[in-house]
Specification:
Radius of gyration: 16 Å
Number of helices: 4
Strand content: 15-25%
Number of strands: 8
Distance between the termini: 7 Å
Structural class: alpha/beta
Shape: globular
Strand order of the largest sheet: 5-2-1-6-7-8
Largest sheet: 6 strands, parallel
Order of helices and strands: EHEEEEHEHEHE
Helix content: 10-25%
Length: about 200
């Protein structure tokens, strides 16, 4: 696939806590790093996202006495999966993986820093009202096609790609540079949703 000047590579949440040894490790999550580093030199524009939760974030199971990780609860904005404490601001787990060497990245976008609402997508928080500002950034920069890689395919990568399509961006997911949590079939469900939305998969 030919890469254009108006393309952007969006690398989602390749952080220590989502890689082996982390608090919410995606199986083989660190395997995304090598294909991302191979693809990156082809792009003039790269954006990194970073989960950035305050301590006691409402998406943490520990914020809901009697609840366990991976249970679901109803929040003001709808159903929310509860997670182990992860990517807490200023901790090792929240840091980008040390092997993700992308000094040419133009933006690091932090999300999930509001205590009362989680943020899977790089474009909107889970209330579907609060924007992160990424859409405006891409629009102002004239970037029209977004390539997605990172963690996890069935949550933050997938929801970011779905929102990119909803915002009118051409959207490409790089499956070899993604890994999934696959919670109760969530990976196959996301794959179907992405296909239905018009996102395409490609290998670079």
């Amino acid at each position: 696939m030919e890469i254009r000047a108006s393309d952007v590579l969006i690398v989602v949440d390749v952080q220590n806590d989502f890689c082996p040894g982390g608090a919410l490790a995606v199986p083989k999550g660190d395997e995304v790093i090598a294909p991302i580093l191979r693809a990156a030199p082809r792009f003039a524009h790269i954006v990194l996202t970073q989960d950035w939760h305050p301590a006691g974030h409402w998406s943490f199971a520990t914020a809901h006495p009697g609840r366990e990780p991976l249970e679901t609860v109803e929040m003001a904005y709808g159903e929310q999966t509860l997670w182990p404490e992860h990517c807490v601001q200023g901790t090792w787990g929240a840091e980008l993986h040390p092997e993700l060497d992308l000094p040419q990245a133009e933006l690091i976008l932090r999300k999930g820093f509001r205590a009362e609402v989680d943020s899977y997508s790089a474009f909107y928080e889970n209330d579907r009202q609060t924007e992160t500002g990424l859409a405006g950034y891409l629009r102002e920069r004239g970037l029209k096609r977004a390539f997605f890689a990172g963690l996890a395919y069935d949550f933050c990568v997938g929801f970011s790609a779905l929102d990119a399509r909803e915002l009118g961006l051409e959207t490409v997911v790089l499956p070899e540079a993604c890994r999934a949590i696959d919670l109760a079939g969530s990976a196959s469900e996301m794959k179907a949703r992405l296909r239905a939305a018009g996102a395409v998969e490609a290998r670079l």
